[in-house]
Amino acid sequence: MTIWTELSSIEHSLTFVDAGGVPTRSLRAGPENGQAVVFLHGTSGHLEAFVRNLRPHAQAGYRCHAIDMLGHGYTGKPDHPYEIPRYADHLRTYLDACGIDRAHLVGESLGGWVAAWLASEHPDRVLSLQLIAAGGTKANPQVMERIRTSTLKAVETDDIELTRQRLHLLMHNPDRDVSEELVELRHRIYHEPAFVAGVHHLLCLQDMETRKRNLLTAERMAALTMPTLIIWGRQNPFGDVPEARAMHEAIPGSRLELFEDCGHWPQHERHEIYNPLSLAFLETAS
């Protein structure tokens, strides 16, 4: 199964949106009058992280937006460090540019961190939250170094095997879930001159002092009163289950779902469980 065959049965568009002066790559699918669901990927990722999710959500009547976040993929790369408020501002300007007053936000890893931050700052813009293996509640130096080192090796060396290893790090069962197409796509992105030039801006959250001032505090999470679904893989290499439970306890009324046989990409690795779960949640949150 390829990215093309996942999407070939539905009407979709791949375009660039001017979000506050930042050209933002956007894959859109589903009826234009449907409620907006915006999908946000993780650190050094890109919109294809949700390729197994767009078709069922679009067919259920939602207007799906999967974007390359600030400094990621083929989106513009301003010359400054990408801290969480900047990501959130970019997301807000994307919503404005698309005429979206309120959206359901689905964020994986870094994307969940950004979604939660925007929701805490602008709760009137967010219908619901899905925090999928979301980062931002801890500063674990071992995990941070693993992210920094594996990403830099893959970006600074042309060996595609290093890109493959970076993707394998995310998945509990990489032989099942990491396609050669996904490896080739990420390798191409990693070696775009603008991406190489800006990779340290992208990795600034792996610096301890920078990360600490961007963390989702208990007070910020307590302010998240919109319907919130937390999804976590039991074999997540970047965060143990207690981290998910603590997030669940901090966010009032949130729901926690733990996936077996799953690492850091639950929406991709266990899409057959995730998609119906997400759609049922969205129906109750609409």
From TrEMBL:
Its EC number is 3.7.1.14. The keyword Hydrolase applies. Residues 36-269 form the AB hydrolase-1 domain. Pfam families: Abhydrolase_1 (PF00561). InterPro entries: AB_hydrolase_1 (IPR000073), AB_hydrolase_fold (IPR029058), AB_hydrolase_sf (IPR050266). One of its GO terms (cellular component) is membrane. This is 2-hydroxy-6-oxonona-2,4-dienedioate hydrolase. One of its GO terms (molecular function) is hydrolase activity. Coiled coil: none annotated. Keywords: Hydrolase. The keyword Ribonucleoprotein does not apply.
